[in-house]
Predict the structure.
Amino acid sequence: MLQRYLCLILFLLSYVTLFAQQHNEYLGVIKLSDSSLISYKIIFSENNGFITGHSITDLNGPHETKSLLTGTFNDAENLLIFKESGIIYTKSSITQADFCYVNFTGRLKKINKRQQIKGTFKGLYNNGEECVNGEIQLANLERIVERAEKVDRKIDRSIFVKQEDKDRINMKKTLDTLSMNLINKGETLSVFTKDQKVTLVIYDAGKEDGDRIDLAIAGSKVLDNFTVTRKKKTIMIDLKDETTLIEVLALNVGTSAPNTVRIEIIDSKNFIRTLTNLETNERAGVTLIKK
């Protein structure tokens, strides 16, 4: 599945051309020195040459990680520099002290144009020790979506593609899936926060189909045989311990498998949205970690 996502990203990157637009969201790949590829996305704003935002590595993968992003953009030299810092969330078991942060230097003609971002990066631990290096290639996300929709239309009109293949192949839908931040069976999303209280919101983001769950927080059941609807259920969580586990157990798959429950974690600085992707009796979790 992840290999298919990477192939899609590379295919669409090859078709991106330069047209004007204003959207500071870029999608692409990290190519490590051993030639392995990792999906990568950055979202940022620019003010007087300073960059702030976040990055997401290994989108929808077992090590998906969202990190803070800061940097500079020199319009005269077409030079973009940014680095990752603190982790916002991760699916990886790697601790913050062990995490390898991207430090990037590359070229970008205009932030408000549909440009590709290309350049090299060094991966550094918090102590400054080098961990990995390679290249980054990114393209404007809006342009990638436009290209995906165009390819989907061509496939749909083609007389050489079987109908079952047309129904199965949908590049736009695959791109949307990359942005869902799914929590699958056995996965735990670790969320870092400095707050003493965090807001948990759960609801059905799509068509109500009778999904039922048990929800436990720090080992105590908070929701028992709860039917998830579009009406948002809000729970305030006091973070008394260094780590607090929120665990979801799927009791069924409703009328349309799988069991999908939208989960939002909100603190004073971050808004994190994720989605369970579970079959009956499968579990997934979110661990809140106080920095």
